[in-house]
Amino acid sequence: MKLNTNQPSFSSYQRDNHFYDEIFSENNEVKEVYKTLLNLYSEHTVQDFARLNEKAKASFFNQGITFQVYGEHETKEKIFPFDLFPRIIDHKEWSHIERGVLQRSKALNHFLWDIYHDKKILRQGIVPLDLINSSANYLDQMQGLNPPGGIYNHISGTDLIKHSDGKYYVLEDNIRCPSGVSYVICNRTALKRALFGVFNHYQTHTVTDYAENLLEIMESVKPRGVDVPTCVVITPGIYNSAYYEHSYLAKAMGVELVEGRDLFVENDFVYMRTINGAQKVDVIYRRIDDVFMDPLEFRPDSTLGVPGLLAAYKLGNVCLVNAPGTGVADDKAIYTYMPQIIKYYLGEEPILNNVHTYHCNRPDELKYVLENIENLVIKPVDEAGGYGISIGNKLTKEEIEKVKTVIKENPRKYIAQPIMSLSVHATYIEDSQSFEPRHVDLRTFCLLGKDKSFVLKGGLTRVALKKGNLIVNSSQGGGSKDTWVLKK
Amino acid sequence: MALNYVIKYAATNVYENLVGEALWQFLIAPLNSGSQQIISSEFRNSLQIPVEKSINGYGFETFRIHPKKSFTSIDFEAEFHLIKDHINPFEKTNASNLEDEFSQLNSLNFKVEHATFLKSTALTKLPKWHEIDFIYSEEVSIFENMKNLNLWIFDGFSFKTDVTDVDTDLDIILEEKQGVCQDFTHLFCAIARSHNIPARYVSGYLHQGNGYFGDSQMHAWAEVFIPGCGWIGFDPTNNLIAAENHIKVAHGKDYSDCPPIKGIVYTSGTNQTTYSVEVNAQQNAQQ
After folding, report:
1. Which residues of B touch A (CB under 8 A)?
2. Do A319 and A283 contact (CB within 8 A), yes or no?
C-alpha cells in the first residue's frame, strides 16, 4: 500500500528522510505490521478522531490519572497526553529487546553486588575507582550487606531509542525508582475503550500481568524465616507526581499503600499500623529516594521515611525493593562502561547497543573528538541535569574553538557521543487534526527476583508532541502511546 | 598494666511544651573489641521506657528509646564498666621499609580497599584556596608524618568551645585557627586523606586524668591506616597517640556518621539539653 495523502487523517504526514520512520519505509510504503492498522484507521473520519481524542482525554482526567507540573506560581494537575496511534513491535524485534534489557539488568545486579563486596571490577581497573568514589549515590552503609536473594535492582527501567540506522540504542538504565508502568496499563485500557475493534486484528501480548509478576518478585525476596510475606508499597504521599502509579500498583497487587508514618520499627522489625493493631511487614516496594528513607541514618529532617528502617534491613528482617544505593550504577559515567560490565560479569557480548562513547582522557579518542566536534555531543562526566552539554551541530565556529580549548585543558572531565536521532512515529496532533510524525523513545520494565525474572511485553512509548522536539519527558510536553508487542 | 574503667554518661532534655512523639538513638556504648573488653553496660531513662538495642549504618551498637506517652522532660543515664589493655602504639610502627610503605599507598588495590576512608566528605573537604603549611615528607615514615601532623594542629590551633558547630566547614577552622576536638579531627582526616592515607573519624571517651582537653563530653580523634601496622589513633586536640586513655565508641567518615545522639522529636516551643560525661579509671591489680 502506498501512502495515500488523500486520507484525511494522514493528509499532512510528511516523511523526513533524516529520521527512521516507524511506519513508512523510505519509499513511503507502509511497513508490514502497520498495514492492517492503517486500513482500519482510514475507515474513520477526521471528526471521529477528534471525538475519540477528546473522549480519551476526559477518561484519563476522570480517573485521576494525572501528574503535577511544578510551575512558578502554581502547581497544575495535568494528564499525560495519550496518543490514539499505537506503536507496534513485532515478535522478532521484541525478543531482541527483551533479551537485551534482561542482560543489562542482570549485569547491573552483578556490578552492584561486586562494588558493595569484593570490588573486583575496581581492583582490576575495568571501571575506574574515581567514578564510584565521586558518586553521591554510593552508600558506604551497604558495604558487605547481602540483600535477600542477592538482588539489588529488582525493578529496572531501561530507555531505548531507534536511531536513523534502524537499530535500538540504550539511552540510560533507571534502577532507583523507575516510574511509568501504570501509564503502560492505562494506555492499553484507553485504546481498548476508544478503538476496541482494532485489537481483533492483532495478537497482542497483555500488559496487565505486570502487577502479579511484581508481587511474585517481591515475595521471592522475602527475609529468612518468613513463610508468607506481607508486602507493602511506600509512597512519599499524594503530592508526589507519581502518586497515581503508587496507588495503582498497590491496588493491583492487593497490598497496602503506606506512607512513612504508617510504619514503625521496633526491635529491628518493621510494623504497619492497622485498625487491628501492629502487623509485621516483610517486603517494602519503596518509592522514596535513598536519602529520605530513614531519618536516623540519612537526612534527619525527612518526614517521609521510617526511623530505624536501614538497621532493620541490614539485620535481614525486611527487604527493600529496590535496594538502597542502586543509584551509583545508573549514572551517566557508569553507563559508558556498560559494555565492559556486561562482558566482565556475564562473559557475553552486549545484545543492545550502547551509544558509543569517546573518553577524552584516551589520547587517540581525544584526537577523534577534537576533529569531529560538529558531529558529537560533548558531556562533562560529573555533572547532572544536562549542565555543560554542548551539541556539536548547533555550535558556531567560535563556540567550537572554545569547547576544544576547554576539553584540552581537562580531557579527563569530558566524554563525547555521536548525535543520536530518535525515530518518528505517526501521532495524532490536535491542532492539525491529523497524524504527523513525532519523535518517540521506549521505556522498558524488567523485574529481577530470586531465581526469577520478567520483562513486561510492552513498554512506555513516550512521544514529543512539539514538532521537531527531541525531549519526550512528560514535564516537557511529552505524551505517550500504547505499545503493542505481537505474539507472532 | 590494664585499666579498669567506669564511664558514666548522663543527659537531660527539658521541653517547654508537651512532646507527643519522640525517638532517640544513642551511639555511646564503648566498642567491645580489640583492646577494650566490656564488663557491663546499663542504660536507664526517667520514663522507664524499655531500651532497644540496634546498630547504626556501619554496624556499631546503638540504644534506642521510643516513648509511647507524652512528657515534658526526660533523663538518660548510662554506665559502662570495661577493661582497657595497655597499648604501646610504637611497638608496631618501626619495622617497615619507607619505599614499600609509600608505594603501597599508591597501589590501586590499596585505594580500592580503603576507598571509604580516602574520600573527602562535606566536613573533611580542604578548601582549594587555603594554603596548608604542614610539611609532608617521604623521607620519614608515614607514622612520623602523622605525628608531625598531630603536632602541627596542636601548635597551630587553639582549643575554644562555642566558636564552632558540629557542621563547621574546614575553611572556617583554617581561617580562625580555633575549634574543638571534632574540628581538629576533621582537619587531621582531611590532610591525611589528601596524601592518600586512609583516615577515619573516631568518637569516644577520653580519660582526662592529666588535664587533657576532652570537654567533659564525648571526645573525638582520628585513626589512620598505616600499611604494615594497621589503624593507629592520633588525637590532635591533645597531641597524643591514642592509647589506654582513649576509649573508642565508633568510627565513620566524619562526625555525621557517628554523632552520640540522634533524635526525632515532635514538639513546639523551646528545649534545653544538658549532658555530662565522667570517666574514672583504676589500675587493674589482677592483671
Report:
1. 23, 25, 52, 54-59, 62, 64, 66, 108-109, 111-112, 115-116, 118-119, 253, 262, 264
2. yes
